[in-house]
Amino acid sequence: MTPTPTSAPAATATPAVRPLTTREADGLIRAAVRTASGLGVRGSITVLDAGGHLLGFRRDDEAVLISGETSTRKAYTALQLDAPTADLVDLVRPDGAFHTLPTALDRPLLFIAGGVPLHRDGRLIGAIGFGGGAPEQDHHIVTAATAEAGLA
């Protein structure tokens, strides 16, 4: 008796989502600069694609140098955890559910407000981070930029 082949259930294809483009990254940066200027904040903006690769970056001439690093780490954290960094701050406090996460991983995570993931059609396509102002200002700057770009 020869075995009869069984057919596997047909996989349903997930529709492709257009990746974040350099043009969109430039638009996000321009929107963040406008919002930051309106607040009188000088800082850095980082835009990452879904793979965590740098798609766009700008540091204001008057920004503190560390703002470049903080904006990048905020964007990376938002991307990796698919959550605004403002929502993660309490989770890494000593009594928080993820209190050991910042030291457990060998990754450039930063749990300070100012990073948000970017979505298109409900799918993660990248992240943006801003560093240089107070955490509340940084969060306001990136959420305003993502709202303007329609990528919240």
Q: How would you portray this structure in words?
A:
This protein is of the alpha+beta class and 152 residues long. It has four helices and four strands, in the order H-E-E-H-H-E-E-H. It has helices spanning 22-39, 66-81, 101-104, 135-149; strands spanning 44-49, 54-59, 115-120, 123-131. Strands 2-1-4-3 form a four-stranded antiparallel sheet. A hairpin with a 4-residue loop joins strand 1 and strand 2. The longest helix is centred in the N-terminal third of the chain and has 18 residues, at 22-39. The mean pLDDT is 89.
Q: Span from first to last CA?
A: 59 Å
Strands ordered across the widest β-sheet? 2-1-4-3
Put simply, the count of helices is 4
* Percent range of helical residues: 25-40%
* Low-confidence parts: none
User: Mind telling me the C-alpha Rg?
Assistant: 19 Å
- Summed over residues and divided by their number, the pLDDT gives a mean of 89
Strand content: 15-25%
Order of helices and strands: HEEHHEEH
